[in-house]
Description:
Layout: H1 33-51, E1 56-57, E2 60-61, E3 63-66, E4 71-74, E5 77-79, H2 84-105, H3 108-112, H4 115-131, H5 134-142, H6 147-172, H7 178-186, H8 192-212, H9 214-220, H10 223-226, E6 237-240, H11 242-245, H12 257-260, H13 270-273, H14 294-306, E7 313-316, H15 318-321, H16 331-352, E8 357-363, E9 370-371, E10 377-387, E11 393-400, E12 406-408, E13 414-416, E14 421-430, E15 439-448, E16 455-463
Antiparallel strand pairs: 1-2, 3-4, 4-5, 6-7, 8-10, 9-10, 10-14, 11-13, 11-15, 12-14, 15-16
Amino acid sequence: xxxxxxxxxxxxxxxxxxxxxxxxxxxxxxxxxxxxxxxxxxxxxxxxxxxxxxxxxxxxxxxxxxxxxxxxxxxxxxxxxxxxxxxxxxxxxxxxxxxxxxxxxxxxxxxxxxxxxxxxxxxxxxxxxxxxxxxxxxxxxxxxxxxxxxxxxxxxxxxxxxxxxxxxxxxxxxxxxxxxxxxxxxxxxxxxxxxxxxxxxxxxxxxxxxxxxxxxxxxxxxxxxxxxxxxxxxxxxxxxxxxxxxxxxxxxxxxxxxxxxxxxxxxxxxxxxxxxxxxxxxxxxxxxxxxxxxxxxxxxxxxxxxxxxxxxxxxxxxxxxxxxxxxxxxxxxxxxxxxxxxxxxxxxxxxxxxxxxxxxxxxxxxxxxxxxxxxxxxxxxxxxxxxxxxxxxxxxxxxxxxxxxxxxxxxxxxxxxxxxxxxxxxxxxxxxxxxxxxxxxxxxxxxxxxxxxxxxxxxxxxxxxxxx
Length: 468
């Protein structure tokens, strides 16, 4: 049976795009408590980033990650690759802090401290300074091309690029001494890697904060996707009180909303206009919300003008919105907090009591022990000495733990330069009558002769014949 041909009057199929075309978001400027907190957070974090490389400490840059020399200066502390353990602890602390604050109060990190948020905020300030308010920006973008528009846009992008270049320069300044880097830049003698990273990091800042903006948070950041796993009904989140706000609608300030059958929401859409990701908080909790609380500030201002109570949009919990009791301190928050505190205390204690000296004891595995011609029992060791102090030192080596232990073929004190790793072969002998068992503990002591407080003790094993 032949198929019926399509009717000539049948309309052609409508093409459906897989992705909606991106619409530029023009966040409205907002003031208030949370806006002030966000501004202060941005200024503090950017101040730390841009100022720290210029600080000096003990004759060198206060914060410097000197990769060629394998030294990492953080104010008065110097870390070496052997201190990788501290980095692991720091990463664990960062993860626990993220879990703790997310379980407690949602996306505080995203709203106030995330680098994407911080640098985007600065780029928005520059855009508002050059192009004006939200309405002026929209009007300018929709205006036809003119000399005025070209000048305004060129000025904005020039400031963006200058700020991005300075950001890239500062980033490289954490790895190359920034004074030397600046001198090389003035002399046009930057190395290829320094030049690459300045341009790469600057371009990334320009692209992410100037153009991608909220798209980083919505599409690229994995945190937006798994944050819901850390939320529960007692997590503080930014929410719209629908029971109080609906039915929404405009009205005069003097109007009686109850007689009109309206809630407190005047449907001004200002909460949407100030949102940096362009969502409507009245639609409920959404993964696109970065927790900046701009909608809280602007809504409170509207409530003040209408003589309504504040808090139509506020930090609250799902249980509170449903009229149920809220438990802020609950098991998961307590566990996260305890682990965060314990590991942080352990990290700082370990760093405060850290000895910039390492001694590794390696027994000769070719023979458990040797018997000398005079009847002594001998073990052979290789001592690996690492001087992680800023100065070279001469170290005195001693051994104890068993009566009659003697160091053989040890040529006096050992000189070790700063950052140097030396392998020192030593032989230890003892009369077998002083060996209480086959396997015995002994201790190697290493102490700087010019700095007695710099010392370390490590325990090894001395193997002897089977006791009878």
